[in-house]
Amino acid sequence: MKRSTRICRTTILGLCAALPVSMTLATTSAAADAPVTVTVRVDANAPGRVIPRNFLGLSFEANQLHSPWTDPSKGNVSALLHNLGDGNLRFSANQVDNSAWMPDPAKPAPAWAKGQIITPDDLTRVGDLAKSTGWSIDLGVNLKHFDPASAANQVAAAQQRIGNSLRSIQIGNEPNVYLVSNDPKTGLPRPYTPQAYVSDARAYRQAIHAADPTVPVAGPDTAGGAVGNPQIDSVLQNAVTPWLDAYTAAFGSKGGFLNQHYYPYVNTERLAQRVGSSSGSADLVGGMPTISGLLSRATADKQTTFIRSLVATADRAGMQPRLSETNSIAAEGLPGVTNSFGGALWTVDYLLTAAREGIAGADLHTQIDDCGSYSLICFPDTAAQRTGALQANPNYYGALLVSRLAGGAILPVTVQSGKANVTAFAVRMPDGTVKVAVDDKDRAFHGTVDVEIVGGNGRSASVERLTAAAPEATTGTEFAGATVGADGSFTPRSSEQATATDGHYRLNVGAPSAVLLSTH
């Protein structure tokens, strides 16, 4: 009982829980219930908010700044980012509070850093990467080891070496899971409350703005997530609210970024082990996440609920809501699930839902040295690390599809799918092209998707498919009939043509997959 209580306390502030309630996962519909046709209706006459061109981003641990792969002259990282269009790179996450800024690398690093440092040369290298790709940079500074002066010094160096590509500074990572911290004035431990965080963040902001008053500071980068148990998930969502309210009250500004993290699931076995419990404790939550659970309507619904709450909070404060760290399963993902084709289909639905609901950008967290996690790009072995030869995981291809809609104005879409788990999203691009993404997450649906575009000018369309052998496949994912080359390049190889009949395009869908239809 003591063990369960400890895990539950960690959960409310972190991302796990231990309550004797079974987790319910929605399953795909039975083949007998699946309709023959899914109807998608797009209103091209009512364009809404525009998906920012740099909506898509990648999040990395801060210690990756010290890794050679960030050098654009080595390896294939620049090509992989170019494929995705404009974007953002975030360097922060858990390791930002374990890394020491060392303006003089010749001096000894503090013992707590255990050799994990960030140097001026690291900032130069990532600045070069930003310039070569056109991607912006969000940079985290250490908060847990309280030192506003050191953070201000790092920011000043970043402005010099990253320049206009430096989009924002993030102070610490997930302060709502610190639990306790040392009071800067007394040095004594104190419970870490939203008010304590605001006090610390204000000291950092003052120091940073004294060094450079032009650099934006974003936050609070609080942890948010779920485990797949409805009773627990509602508690976790409510626990974030006081932190966002305290932050917006103290630092809300017109157009500023309101940063929040979110994962719909957590690797409960791994997290239980971290807090000193047996891996079997995961069963108390309801078991480990699955591909079917990840793709379920229940998961989509809870994600949308969380996103809408964040957007509403940001709107009240006049701020831009960002999912500054997000992905499918927290605690570094789950091999066979987060690195599967099912994970790619989840990526399409999740990102486009976030864009539709008003999120200004989403940085998908990537453990670049772990291809079994939720990483979009990763090193499969030590030889690849030495040469900088990154691999594209299945969900990279999902992000590739989503990137094709960036810059488009969101259009109203209705989907009549019966019990089939099929979703759709649409945009009107600046040149008038209407693009429709259809995401079939249902194992039982084999039939026709009838896409009707009301007010569309096109009479024909190209069709690009996101495919793999099965949702469980961890290799063999293709988009537009192509895979990413060893050098990181991507060239579509196949594009079907579809002709409109009375404004309708009819697409055959025979397995879980996604389709991008572009009118012309």
UniProtKB/TrEMBL annotation:
InterPro entries: GH (IPR017853), GH79_Enzymes (IPR052974), GlcAase_C (IPR031728), Glyco_hydro_b (IPR013780). GO terms for molecular function: hydrolase activity. The keyword Repeat does not apply. This is Glycosyl hydrolase family 79 C-terminal domain-containing protein. SUPFAM superfamilies: (Trans)glycosidases. Keywords: Hydrolase, Signal. Residues 447-516 form the Beta-glucuronidase C-terminal domain. Residues 1-31 form the signal peptide. It comes from Speluncibacter jeojiensis. The keyword DNA damage does not apply.
